[in-house]
Write a structure and sequence with these properties.
Elements: E1 3-7, H1 10-19, E2 32-37, E3 42-46, E4 50-54, H2 58-63, E5 95-101, E6 110-117, H3 122-127, H4 138-150, E7 155-160, H5 162-170, H6 175-194, E8 202-205, H7 210-219, E9 228-231, H8 239-263, H9 273-286, H10 291-294, H11 301-304
Parallel strand pairs: 5-8, 8-9
Antiparallel strand pairs: 1-4, 2-3, 3-4, 5-6, 6-7
Helix pairs in contact: 4-8, 6-7
This protein binds magnesium ion.
Amino acid sequence: MGQVVLKLTKDKIQEMKSHYKNQLAPSIPQAAVFVAKTPYSTITAYQSGKVLFQGKDPEKEAAQWGLTNTSNTREKITKPVHEFHPPETLFHSSHIGSDEAGTGDYFGPITVAAAYVKKEHVALLKELGVKDSKHLTDEVIRKIAKDILHLDIPYTLLKLNNRKYNQLQAKGWSQGKMKTMLHHHALEKLLEKIQPEHPEGILIDQFSQPNVYKRHLATEGNKLQENVYFMTKAESYSIAVAAGSILARASFVKAMEDISKELRMDIPKGASQKVDRAAAAVISKFGKAKLQDVAKVHFATTQKADKFL
Ligand code: MG
């Protein structure tokens, strides 16, 4: 079980105490200011300024307070993960969020979506059930994606098809670089679309260190836009990232259906032995070259499929 220790100011601890006012534990240890229990973590704040998060997902809880780091030792005091960590206020402001889907799946494209959620839409989107797409079934995702499209939520959606993916990969592009450029272009297009409005910030669901992201941009002569932030598990904090995540996932699910229809076979998501077998079936039905159109051929799956031929 992991734990996170933060060192926070007295003011911040008071702010936390009122934030958790409905979850405070009735009794607290000596030298503690408060103890609160959330579904993810037990939080103990000490007079020394030390705040201890323990439980199922302490990072999730700690991340809201601006600083995160997992540690196995009680004494380790954490530093900000990086300078691009978003301020708490961003989540409640009119902001853009972006996320991708399909990166770990052998079959199918990579999709990236960015959504601009205005302050006044946050509550409505929450009501529609917009949240971390990892916790939703494909069916629910598609329904919510439709709802998002019916609202006036500006968004952009990019799809990197397998043929192009494999070309870039053969050219030496890492998947990280592909994702970087997809996010960047999705954001660029969305910023253009919403003009003359400016978001208060842009939050990217972090898939690499911000410096690596910036380096990839530089190799293509691009630069980070203004007020861009990065955070892991961002879809749990930002409704805009959650909306992006749902749109990207819905588009990926649709693409997988299209591939299944085209090949007249059931094409599974992810990467597993089931996927290895499906790859073998595609090879025996259409020949190995067909994989270029429907799969990320550099995955180990391509080799593993041989076992089933
Ligand atoms: Mg993501």
